[in-house]
Amino acid sequence: MFEEIERRFGRVAPAVDQCTLRIERRREERLSVERDAPVPRRASESFGAMVTVRHAGGLGYAATSDLAERGLAAACARAVEMAALSAGRMVPGFPGPAPLEGEAFYAGPHLRPWAELPLGERIDRLADASRRLRIDERISDWGAAVWTIDKEQVLLEAGGGRIAQRFHYLQPALWAAASAQGESQRRTFGENAMRAGGAEVLEQLGFETAPERVAREAIALLEAPNCPVGTMDAVLAPDQMVLQVHESIGHPLELDRILGDERNYAGTSFVTPDMFGTYRYGSELLNVTFDPVRAGEIASYAYDDEGTRAERTHLVKDGILLRPLGGALSQARSGLAGVANARATSWNRPPIDRMANLNLEPGTSSLDEMIRAVERGVYMETNCSWSIDDSRNKFQFGCERGRLIENGTLTRVVKKPNYRGVSASFWRSLAMVGAPDTVETLGTAFCGKGEPNQVIRVGHAVPPCLFRRVEVFGGA
User: Fold this and answer.
1) Chain-centroid distance, C-alpha 265
2) β-bridge partners, 441
3) What is the mean pLDDT of residues 343-361?
4) Contact at 8 Å (CB) between 417 and 401?
5) How many CB atoms lie within 10 A of CB 47?
6) Burial group, residue 326, by CB count within 10 angstroms (0-12, 13-18, 19+)
7) Are strands 162-180 and 195-196 parallel, antiparallel or unpaired?
8) pLDDT of residue 266
9) 120, 144, 332, 364: which could join 95 in a potential S-S bond, CB 3.0 to 4.6 Å?
10) What would you report as the CA-atom Rg of the chain, rounded to the nearest whole angstrom?
């Protein structure tokens, strides 16, 4: 089907400086069993294309779900019209067209396709997990789910190159809420654990062995005291480090945000262009890479949605800020070197600067060594709330579960652990970083940005980390 669409495009593509077509077909499915009852299967499919025209210094986009020749011709005509209207009105530094490379193909991992398992078997696996969550009458709400996305994409230039890519993603979820004496506590599994792949992701994440643990921890939170208040050390588990990296490193480094493009919606950044190359973002232990070529993460690809080849790049090295998250357009406008991160959420949106796989590189410490290095502190797991200002600087995050650290030992469970800080100084308190065997490959499918809004997948491979003298407090 894609090949026929490509032939149609070849017949109707206009004579301009550059005309590209990005075709995308996306299928999604969510299966869930809630309170031991199967929920009706949710499935969707989206299929369409985006025409991009660059001509005489102007840029025009037009999207269509009519992939017949007449629909593609109409989209080309609209894109040409928009390019003519924008010619002479583009922002300073707007680059000319960059030709696509020749033929290229990329396919993400997909060892055991979830969709190829019989539907009854898929539901039975979720039903078994759901039953195992109900370990006590105090479990008042519980469930299990699997969400999958399969996406095929082709980017081609009229008379030029062609890049085809295929992606498969799976995210499992478990949840258990425990209630007693007017109080309720919730524990989850997999909320930020979408990975590239098929049914093998369930084994990679330990889905089959997790239900009883999740339920036990929900019940334990009912009986736990609130997290103490004070300035103390904090050890953040990988499933909390995901959000810490995402919000206080990823978003502040988006170059279009730094240039002011997002201020009306998603805000600005405390980072300014003059900081790159000299600014101390964190301690010498902080090393952050943009790595879309890492296998298994949900934002892995060979080329971004404008056809720029993806490469692993340090954004922060030994604590020093080196490079922003900026695609070709933002790089040309700012004069700063960026990365291949022009990404679109769907065929009906143009690419903008986005995170992809943004990873905190491992250090040398074990989790036990971090705990032993703390006299008074809290170990925090699993984000449940977040607040950050519009320059991505001051933040406040809450977690589902904490454990006190007293004289180098993990002790009591505490509920509602929260902490706050300032991005510009928080990362300088980084004192220990987990070794490679502590790294967890996680990610979120719900990173929102742009007008009109674009929700996209972002991967984070992160170890646990120790931060000194953090402002910690309990919930109400």
Assistant:
1) 19
2) 461
3) 97
4) yes
5) 15
6) buried
7) antiparallel
8) 83
9) 332
10) 24
Q: How far apart are CA 82 and CA 87, in angstroms?
A: 9
Bridge-based pairing of strands 430-433 and 376-388 is unpaired
CA-based nearest residue to 195, from 174, 176, 167: 167
* Structure-token pair, residue 101: 């490379």
The pLDDT tens digits for 372-389 are 999 999 999 999 999 999
What pTM, to 2 d.p., does this model score? 0.95
Q: How far apart are CA 49 and CA 361, in angstroms?
A: 37
Considering Cα of 61, then 21, then 24, then 448, what sign does the dihedral take?
negative
Listed residue (196, 201, 203) closest to 167, CA to CA: 196
E-strand stretches of 344-393? 352-353, 358-360, 376-388
Tokens of residue 27, six digits: 């299928």
pLDDT at 428 > cutoff 80: yes
Asked whether the beta carbons of 15 and 49 are under 8 A apart, the reply is no
- Provide the token pair at 371: 């705990």
Burial bucket for residue 40 (CB in 10 Å: 0-12, 13-18, 19+): exposed
Whether 160 and 118 have beta carbons less than 8 Å apart is answered as no
Distance CA 195, CA 114 (A): 13
The values of phi and psi at residue 434, to 5°, are -60, 150
Spatial CA neighbour of 190 closest among 366, 440, 434 = 440
User: Contact at 8 Å (CB) between 396 and 418?
Assistant: yes
Question: Residue 215 in contact with residue 205, Cβ under 8 Å?
Answer: no
The phi-psi region of residue 191 (left if phi > 0; otherwise alpha if psi is between -120 and 50; otherwise beta) is alpha
In angstroms, the CA 19 to CA 166 distance is 22
Which of these, 366, 333, 335, 368, lies nearest to 352 by C-alpha position?
Answer: 333
Alpha-carbon separation of residue 91 from 60, 83, 171, 233 (angstroms) = 14, 14, 40, 46
Between CA 293 and CA 432 the distance in angstroms is 26
Residue 476: pLDDT over 70: no
Phi, psi of 268 (to 5 degrees): -110, -150
- Angle at Cα 457 formed by Cα 452 and Cα 463, nearest 5°? 140
- Evaluate if residue 78 carries a pLDDT over 70: yes
Q: Which pair of tokens denotes residue 448? A: 């929102």
Crossing angle of helices 69-86 and 2-12, rounded to 10°: 50
- Cβ atoms of 400 and 218 closer than 8 Å: no
